[in-house]
């Protein structure tokens, strides 16, 4: 902590109270609306792009798991962004939870928060139950992006969410997940993108 800050317990107490009040989420939502309107778009998004990222965590973290595909012990971050890259929703959970199962709750909460969303886009990891859930429960469409060619290539719309993950990884505090509580990780991600 910088020397001109109060004791760390006082700072954490304020941060915790703001988290419980939903300050970071409300502020992020208002800033997203302002940015969209300034760029000549509607205030509420109509399209969401989803992806997940596995990150290493501390041993004491809650909901810690192993992502068998990426060989990472820690948490998984699911984020949904609009076409401009504005963060709409973030959810942090154990890394061993499958994307197709975890995404259902993320899509549900995002659709409730932004009823204006008409469709989502995700990568091939969301095939199957996520597509069925989106269609049957929310009556929305989840578009699945496919590779254009066998080599590396920029996929339309997908690069927007990947760029957001890149921005997050530039912050030392978010390059790994140093938080014990997953809710604190959610709020830190929201706060960094303000």
Q: Write the element-wise H/E pattern from the N-terminal end onward.
A: HHEEEEHEHEHHH
CATH topology: Nucleotidyltransferase, domain 5
Which structural class is indicated by helix and strand composition? Answer: alpha/beta
Shape type: globular
- How many E-type strands? 6
Instruction: Identify the CATH architecture.
Output: 2-Layer Sandwich
Mean pLDDT, all residues? 84
Number of helices: 7
In CATH terms, the superfamily is Ribonuclease H-like superfamily/Ribonuclease H
- Approximate strand percentage: 15-25%
State the main characteristics:
41% helix, six-stranded mixed sheet, Nucleotidyltransferase, domain 5, globular, alpha/beta, single chain, 7 helices, 194 residues
In words, what does this structure look like?
The chain is of the alpha/beta class and 194 residues long. It has a single domain, classed as Nucleotidyltransferase, domain 5 (2-Layer Sandwich), CATH 3.30.420.10. 41% of the residues lie in helices and 20% in strands. The chain contains 7 helices and 6 strands; from the N terminus they run ααββββαβαβααα. Strands 1, 2, 3, 4, 5 and 6 form a 6-stranded mixed beta sheet that branches. A hairpin with a 4-residue loop joins strand 2 and strand 3. It is globular, with a radius of gyration of 17 Å. The two termini are 21 Å apart. The model has no long low-confidence stretch (mean pLDDT 84).
């Amino acid at each position: 902590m910088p020397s001109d800050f109060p004791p760390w317990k006082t700072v954490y107490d304020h941060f915790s109270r703001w988290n419980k009040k939903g300050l970071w989420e409300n502020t992020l939502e208002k800033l997203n609306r302002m940015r969209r309107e300034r760029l000549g778009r509607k205030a509420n998004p109509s399209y969401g792009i989803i992806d997940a990222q596995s990150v290493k965590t501390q041993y004491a973290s809650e909901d810690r798991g192993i992502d068998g595909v990426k060989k990472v012990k820690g948490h998984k971050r699911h984020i949904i962004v609009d076409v401009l890259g504005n963060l709409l929703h973030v959810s942090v959970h154990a890394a061993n939870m499958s994307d197709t199962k975890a995404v259902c709750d993320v899509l549900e909460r995002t659709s409730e928060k932004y009823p204006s969303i008409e469709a989502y886009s995700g990568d091939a990891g969301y095939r199957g139950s996520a597509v069925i859930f989106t269609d049957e429960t929310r009556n929305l469409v989840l578009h699945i992006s496919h590779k254009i060619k066998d080599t590396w290539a920029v996929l339309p719309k997908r690069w927007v969410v990947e760029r957001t993950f890149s921005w997050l990884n530039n912050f030392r505090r978010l390059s790994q997940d140093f938080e014990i509580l997953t809710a604190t990780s959610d709020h830190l991600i929201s706060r960094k993108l303000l």
